[in-house]
Structure formats: structure tokens, C-alpha cells
Amino acid sequence: MARVICLSGAGLSADSGLSTFRGADGLWNNHRVDQVCNITRWKANFDVVHRFYNDLRTGLPKVEPNAMHRLLASWQDRFETVLITQNVDDLLERAGARDVLHLHGRLEEMLCVACGNVWNIGHRAYNPMEETCPACPCRKGVKPNVVFFGERAPAYLDLGRVLKSVTPEDVFVVIGTDGRVVPVGTIVAELKCRKVLNNLEPVSQDEWLPGMVHECLFNRAIFRPAVDAVEELDEIVSAWMAEVNDTPSAVA
Ligand SMILES: [Zn+2]
Predict the structure, then answer these.
(1) Is 102 a catalytic residue?
(2) For the segment 184-218, what is each residue's pLDDT rounded down to a tens digit?
(3) Of 50, 69, 102, 104, catalytic
(4) For residue 23, is pLDDT > 60?
(5) Are strands 3-8 and 101-102 parallel, antiparallel or unpaired?
(6) Distance of CA 18 to CAs 46, 156, 231, Å?
(7) Domains of the chain, earliest start first
């Protein structure tokens, strides 16, 4: 059975009001990357790291899933759909999506680097002075379960498994990522299936580096904000899936 496989990045959640981590008004401009998300330095900046991620986590309830999150969640009801995201927010889940593969972790989760325990604390602030890992007494080894620079990303193994299983009948959708962090361009270049891209704009020639996305790698490309691409993207994906799956095409 053909599947829809969707790999999303910051551009998916940008229209929900979440600052993208990079880009013109990115979060990194206000916080030094080395301080808040570097696996070799985070313990030296323990308080700052927790304050930074507490702000992001407690800010989650103030943003809402947008129409593109809802479209992706609805595909799971209509097609066999695998959702993979680089985003650490929970907007896909709050739009109703299930089993989302978070490549870079999740804001609502904490990780104990001492014992490997991962637990969910919802949208609340974590108190790094008083709380400890619930599975072992470690306090200084507790970090947000968000992949830092230099840190292993265990979910990349799952991504590799999904990519290996792609068949020519599948449909691969890329939304809101230029491939700067995860080499999406390299990934899609090797896939022998139909591919569609939705990004705000093409990567300019000056900025393009190997591994980044380029519209020539896709059968179709939509350059506009994700929330404004919902209808067209749904039409494209539904038509392709109808060809191979005999499923109803786009929902009105
Ligand atoms: Zn522990």
C-alpha cells in the first residue's frame, strides 16, 4: 500500500507564531547557541539552558496548530501516513497527529543523560535546582530531551529505516525546511518516488550548499507560507495517492 511520508521543519510551525530557530528573526539571535544547545557546554550553563527551554515549553500553550498541521493529521485518517518532523513543538500532536517521529526531540520531555530515562512534563517549567530524574537520583544530568549540537540524535536511525522502506508508489512531502540541518536535498535526490516541496521561497543561489533542498529535486514545488499552501498541497498529494491507491481524492 502506497504511503504518504512527510518530513517537516520550522517553516511548518512558523505560521503558528513560533519563532523559527534560524532565519531572520530566529531564536538564536537572542541566545548564544553555544550557551543553550551545545552538548559539551550545557552543564556549564545549566541554569541558562533550563531557563531557555522552560520559556519555550511554557510558551507552547500560547500557540495553536495551524491549517497545515491539521492537514497532515487528516492525511493519517485518509492514507497510510508517516509524519517526521525536525520540530520540537507538539503542534502536530495537538492537531490530532499520531506517532510523529521527532528527529530532534520534544520540548515536553526531559532526558537524564546518566541513565537514559525520558519522561514527559507537559507544558510546565522544570525546576533544575530541586527536581531530579525520577528513575535515578541524578540532578545535574537532566536536560531537555531536545537534541543539542554535538549530541547523538537516536531518531536518525528511525529516519534511516523509513527512507530505506520508501517504494516508487509512495509520495514524499517536504514542508518548511531548507535542508541546512538535516540534508533533505540529499535524501530526496535518492528517493525514486513522487516528491513535492512546500517552502516559503527557493533557497537563493548564493546560499545553496550541497544537501540543501532545490526545486529541481521535486516533481512539484509550492513557494508560499505553509498555511497558504494547504489546499494545493492536498490536491497534489490526494491525486497522486488516488492513482496508486484507489482512495477518494481531495476532501472538499
Ligand atoms: Zn536518571
Answers:
(1) no
(2) 999 999 999 999 999 999 999 999 999 999 999 99
(3) 104
(4) no
(5) unpaired
(6) 24, 24, 22
(7) 1-18+65-104+153-252 (3.40.50.1220), 19-62+107-146 (3.30.1600.10)
